[in-house]
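Input record, target 12 of the design panel.
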């Protein structure tokens, strides 16, 4: 939907956002437990192909064992692999976490950067992870395209794309900036409770009148 939006399209998006705000509120919240930017960065890297609930279980002990960026940078790779094994793809994740933390120390003085280019230069950090950090830590308007956002945004007719980056740009075009971060928060909640992938409850969904898929 890169074309100019019609008045009707704008009104429909506004109705969808109003319904989401009414149902879920407008408070920002992150489902990954963290106390700092670097903890959220690592937790988000671990969340690839893994549930937030599982990541939170793992990081509860992980951040005690490795209490700093320096500790992760010096971690034994095989030992770290076992520490994060239950999150899946643990070999690649361990390699990326160590390399990422080493670069944070060498090039960013041990601080997590805020700009997209610097974030995506880190090992294992793509646009999705970078936007999680930008939105939740630095309050930069960012759209995070995860599996829920991809699936439900397509069902709502806000994009026809399948590539996450193209979906991100489509959503940036149709959503007001003050709802970029909220979109991810709201749609994750909707995708986990009502609009599930396997059995969407269209008949009871509060968005059914605005959703082409429900009709």
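The sequence produced for target 12 reads:
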């Amino acid at each position: 939907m890169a074309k100019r939006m019609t008045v009707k399209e704008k009104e429909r998006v506004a109705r969808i956002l109003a319904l989401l705000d009414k149902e879920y509120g407008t408070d920002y919240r992150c489902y990954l437990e963290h106390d700092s930017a670097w903890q959220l960065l690592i937790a988000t890297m671990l969340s690839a192909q893994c549930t937030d609930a599982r990541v939170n279980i793992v990081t509860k002990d992980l951040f005690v064992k490795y209490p700093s960026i320096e500790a992760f940078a010096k971690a034994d790779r095989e030992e770290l692999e076992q520490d994060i094994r239950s999150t899946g793809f643990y070999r690649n994740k361990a390699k990326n976490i160590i390399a990422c933390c080493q670069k944070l120390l060498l090039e960013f003085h041990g601080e997590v950067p805020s700009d997209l280019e610097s974030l995506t230069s880190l090992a294992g950090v793509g646009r999705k992870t970078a936007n999680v950090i930008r939105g939740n830590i630095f309050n930069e308007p960012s759209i995070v395209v995860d599996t829920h956002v991809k699936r439900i945004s397509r069902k709502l007719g806000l994009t026809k794309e399948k590539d996450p980056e193209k979906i991100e740009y489509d959503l940036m075009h149709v959503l007001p900036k003050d709802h970029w971060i909220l979109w991810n928060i709201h749609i994750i909640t909707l995708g986990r409770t009502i609009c599930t992938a396997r059995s969407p409850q269209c008949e009871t969904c509060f968005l059914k009148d605005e959703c082409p898929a429900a009709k």
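Residues 37-136 form a domain with the Endonuclease III; domain 1 fold (CATH 1.10.340.30).
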